[in-house]
Amino acid sequence: QVVVLSLLMFPVLRGLALQLHSAVTGSYLSGTHSIAFINCLNEQIAKDIARAIMDKKLAACVNILPKSSALSFWKGELEESTEILLLVKTRTSKIGELSNYVRSIHPFEIPEIISLPIDQGNPLYLKWIEESVPR
């Protein structure tokens, strides 16, 4: 039980450690923010999901990238499609909530929602993300 509780507490403890480090040093700690990638079937769905994410204050910014070709295996068959990609800039601590919310509104059976931590960047931009997305 102690091990399970420790594992469940790790994200919370890591988040607190990140906040403390940033407050004490005034520097950016790699991984505090993330970029999430979400693929959508068409531009209207992409805009609707992007607006919903922003309305919930789950991101500081969502870029809607134009159509791209995609090849993937779905139910054993090779599928070819065009998709619109959302780039969502947010706090790493919000990725779980973002993923749950997008899954609840996305029309795909299994939507692509993946994220990568932001290693470094313009300090003023990273601070803006911090200020734009409530804890």
UniProtKB/TrEMBL annotation:
Gene Ontology BP term (one): response to metal ion
Gene3D superfamilies found in the cross-reference section: 3.30.70.120
Keywords: Signal
Annotated InterPro entries: Ion_tolerance_CutA, N-reg_PII-like_a/b, N-reg_PII/ATP_PRibTrfase_C
Keyword Glycosyltransferase among record annotations: no
One GO MF term: copper ion binding
Binding partners and assembly: Homotrimer.
Protein family according to the UniProt entry: Belongs to the CutA family.
Protein name in the entry: Protein CutA
Organism of this sequence: Merops nubicus (Northern carmine bee-eater)
